[in-house]
Amino acid sequence: NGGIITIPVVVHVIHSGQAYGVAQNITDEQVQSQITVMNNDFRRMAGTPGFNTNPVGADVMIQFALAKVDPNGNPTNGIDRVRICQDSWTTSEVNANVKPTTIWDPTQYMNMWSVKLGGSSSNILGYAQFPSNSGVIGMPAGGAANTDGVAANYRTFGSSDYGTNFALDAPYDKGRTMTHEVGHFLGLRHIWGDDSDPLVCATDYCNDTPPAHEDNYTCTLPIESCTPGLFEMVENYMDYTNDTCMNIFTLDQKARITAVMNNSPRRVEL
Ligand code: ARG
Ligand code: ZN
Ligand code: CA
C-alpha cells in the first residue's frame, strides 16, 4: 500500500426522530461526501476544489473509509443512526451524554459524530479531541477514551459539491470543518499556535507554516507573518478561513501526523 494508512470510520448520525434525510437525520450521501472531502484533502488529490501547487503541500498518506465490520463482527455501512430524544446539544452535553453511549472502540475506529449543536454551542462548526500519550512535542491534552473522536454540526458535515438534500452552512459548506478537526485528532495545532496576543506569532511546531499572528477568516489580503517576507498561510486547513479558501496540509504537518501515528494512539487501520 506504499505506506498509506486507511482509517476505518464510523459516523454516528444523532437525530431526534426526524425521517431519513430530514434535518439532522442526514442522508448516507451527505455522510459519504464528508469522507470524500477528507480523502481528497489528506491525499492532496489533483483536480479537487482549490488544488494547491505549493511545493510544501503534502500528501499526508492517510485516507478514510466507512467501516465494513461493526464492533460485534457484523457487516455495517459504517453509518450508525441513533435517535435520542433531545433535539440539540452543547458540546459538553455531547461529551457527557452522546459520545459515551454511542462510541465504537476508539482503538479500532475513528469515531465521527454529526449532531445538531445548539444553545451555547450553536456557533460551533465542529470540535476534536487531541491524541493522548502521543509523545509528540507541543501536544495539547487529550481526553477520555469514551469521548475520543471528532464531532460537527450536521449543517457543516459533508460538502455541497457532492450533493446534499438541504443547504449546508455556507461558507463552511465544503466539508473542511471535518478536515480541520481530523487534523487536530491526528495531532495538528492551529497555525497561529493558539495564543490570543495579536502581536505574537506562537508556534504550531511546524517550520513550513509561516508564523501567524492570529486566526484568519479571510483569504483576500496577503497577511504578513512575524517573519519578514513571509505571509501567513491562510489557506492551511488549520486556520479558520472559509472552506473554499482552505487547500493545504504541509510536509511538516504530515511529519507531525506521522509521528503521532508511529507512536500508536491513532494506529487504527484496515
Ligand atoms: N472548530 C472550528 C470552529 O468551530 C472549526 C473551524 C473550521 N473552519 C472551516 N472553514 N470549516 O470554529
Ligand atoms: Zn481548530
Ligand atoms: Ca498570536
UniProtKB/TrEMBL annotation:
Record family assignment: Belongs to the peptidase M43B family.
Q: Where is the Peptidase M43 pregnancy-associated plasma-A domain?
A: 102-261
Source domain of life: Bacteria
Which source organism does the UniProt entry give?
A: Chryseobacterium nepalense
Q: Which controlled-vocabulary keywords does the entry list?
A: Disulfide bond, Hydrolase, Metal-binding, Metalloprotease, Protease, Signal, Zinc
- State what protein this is by name: M43 family zinc metalloprotease
Please give the start and end residues of each transmembrane region.
none
Q: Which GO terms describe its molecular function?
A: metallopeptidase activity
